[in-house]
Every structure is written in C-alpha cells, then in structure tokens.
Amino acid sequence: MTEPRRRALGWIGTRLSDHRAELVEVRDEVDSMRRAMDERIATAGKALTRLAAERGDLQRERDLLRQSLAEKSRVAARLRLELEQARAHNEELLAQTLPAALQVATQISDDPTSPPEKSGFRQNLAMAGELRDARAEAAALKAKLEEAEEDAARHSSRAALGALPYEAETRALRAELNAAAAELTRAKDALARAEDERTRSEESHRAEVRELTRRHDDAMAAMAARRSNDDEAAAKRELLRAHAEESAALRAETRDSKAAAARAEAAAEAARAQLASLEEAARGRDARVEEVVGVADALRAELEAEKAKAESAAAKAAAETERLRSELVAARHTQILPDLAALDEMESRLHSLAGTLRAREREVASLNGVVEAQVMERRALAEELRNAREEAAALKAAIEKERELRRRAPPRGSQNGGGNGGGKDRPMTKSMSRAFKTLRY
C-alpha cells in the first residue's frame, strides 16, 4: 500500500471518528433534553396535583362558608323580622294612645281645674310606658343591626387581608407557568439547533462518503491501467481486497450513522410529542388557575358576607355564655355546694365501709387458713386411725391364730413344770406389745 493511500485512509478514519464523536454528542444532547423534559413534566404534574389539592381545600372552605352564610342569613332575617314587629307594635301603641291623649288634652283645655279620669289616665300612662319600652327595644334592635353592619365591614376587611396569601400564591403559580413556557421555548430552540446540526453532519458525512467512493474508483481505474505483470496484479488484488474491506467498513459505519440518525430523529419526534403534551398541560393548568382565581374571588365575597354574620352570631353566643355563667354561679351557690358536702360525707362513709370490708376480708382469710389447717390435721389423723385399725385387725388375726395353735399344741407343764413357773403363759412378744399399744392409743 502506498503512502498517499495510507494518509488518505488515515484522514478518512479521523473524519469518521470525528463524525462518531459528533453523533455521540448529539445523542447525549437529545438524552439530556429528554431528561430535562421528563423533569419538567414531573414538575408540572406535581404543580397540577398541588393545584387540585388546593382546589379541594377551597371547595371545602367554600361549602363551610356557604353553610355559615345560610345560618347567618337566617339570623339576619330573624333580626329584621323582630325589628319590623317592634316597629309595628310601636305604631299600634301610638295609634291606641294618641286618641286617649287627645281626649285628655281636650278635657284639660276645656276645664283646667277638673282632674282627668283616674282609670283613663292610668291606662294612658301604662300605654305610654309600653310605648317607651317598645321604642327602647326598637333602638336596641337597631343598635344590634348597626353593630352587625360594622362587624360585616370589619370582617370584609379581614377577609380581604386573608385573601392576600391566595392572590400571592396565584401570582407565584402564574410566574411558574411563565417560567415553564420560557423553558419550553428554550427547549424548542435547542431541539431545532440539534436537528440542524444533525442535518449538517449527515450532509457532510454523505459528501465525504461520495468523495471516498470517487477516490476509490479513480484508484481502481489507475490500478487497472497500470496492471502489467503478475506481481503488480497480486499487489493490486491485495490492494483491491483492502479497499473492498475498507469500503465494507465504511458502508457499515454509514449504516450505523444512518441508524443513529434515525434514532436521533425518533428521539426528536418523542421530544416534540412531549413538548406538545407539556404545552397542552400548561394550557390546561392556565385554565385551571383562572378557574381557581374565579372561585377564590367568589369565595372572598362569600367570606366577607359570612364574616359579617359570624360576628353577630358571636355576640349572641357571648351573651348566651354570660347568661349561662351567671346561672351556673347561682346554681353553684344553691345546689352544687350542698351536693358537694353530701358527696364528701358519702365518700367518707364509703372509705370507712371499705376499711371495714377489708378488715372482714382479712379475718375471713385467717379463718380460712385455720380451717384448712384443721382439715389437713383431721385428714392426717383419719389416715393414722385407718392404719391403726388395719394393724389392729392384723394383730387380732395373729392372736387368734396363736391361740388356735396353743389349743392344738400339747400341754407343756407335764414335761417341764419347774422351768417357767408351772402353768404360766408365754411371755408377750414384741409384735404383741406393739399391737396392744396401738389398741390402747
């Protein structure tokens, strides 16, 4: 192989290595972009999950506020009804009192010295007192209504302050959405640049392959022209085989490059699909954010109304609590303290009874011990008595047997009368002595 061909093949190998490195870099960039897209999609999914949870919390809070609003609406309606009834009662009292007052005024003007009738005058005074009471009650109801309105205004301001965190969170979510959109735009630009770079790399690779093919064809033509003898033919065949192997390797590398380019194209298509889905998710999230903002505004308005009613209910609850506290104090002085004294006395009696019961239980336990000891002792004695009776029965049987033997034996006095005192009985044996002791016992 000649030196120019070696240099050409080395240059071709260098270019192929460079192309492989560029393809690896493109593949790494596509993988990094895919990972970045996956991370962004996961972040968007987490944000959507958080928004869904916040929406559920807002819905529950909205339901609670609606319930409280309904309760407060009922309370306000009842207060308005009481105020209308008080006004009607005042007008009725005024209508009833005015003719009598005019009559009394006419009587006094006709005859200033004559006193008015006592019964009518007293009735007029009573009606005037009722009128004053009704006016006072109406004024109290009006004051309560004004206080409820003031509380409503105060709670509306509090509700506005309480809604500030939701607005800040909404702004933060919008900022996140804008950042995600900017990141999507940057990813699209990077993907477009990667595609342009891949296209340029493929074009340059094809051009180099065409150039190598052309050079190979030129070399083959030159070799065919210079073929003159067998040695040159063998060398040319070797060179042709080497060129064929190099061409096969180049074709394989070309196929690998095309496969890598196809994979990069598929990865780019997948990245485009992910970008499209992410954009769709971002649009859906924008719509949900707008919906949440609308719900938050509606809830803020409802909260303002609810807070107004809550204050009036709280005032009533405080009054009711104060009344119950006073009743409890009175009941404590009249009922609870005597009951506590009786309970203390009963507790002392129960303590004394418990002590007595414990003492009796100890006595019963000691008696049980004594009884058990006596029972055990009696059982032992019964066992000894049974053994003694058995031994006595055995001894009695032995004595009867010995007597029977004596009756059957010949008399010994005629043979040896002076040896044991004439006709005296035999001495008592040890077994007979034990038997007689047992019988005595």
UniProtKB/TrEMBL annotation:
<feature type="coiled-coil region">
    <location>
        <begin position="16"/>
        <end position="96"/>
    </location>
</feature>
<keyword id="KW-0175">Coiled coil</keyword>
<protein>
    <submittedName>
        <fullName>Uncharacterized protein</fullName>
    </submittedName>
</protein>
<feature type="coiled-coil region">
    <location>
        <begin position="128"/>
        <end position="204"/>
    </location>
</feature>
<feature type="region of interest" description="Disordered">
    <location>
        <begin position="401"/>
        <end position="441"/>
    </location>
</feature>
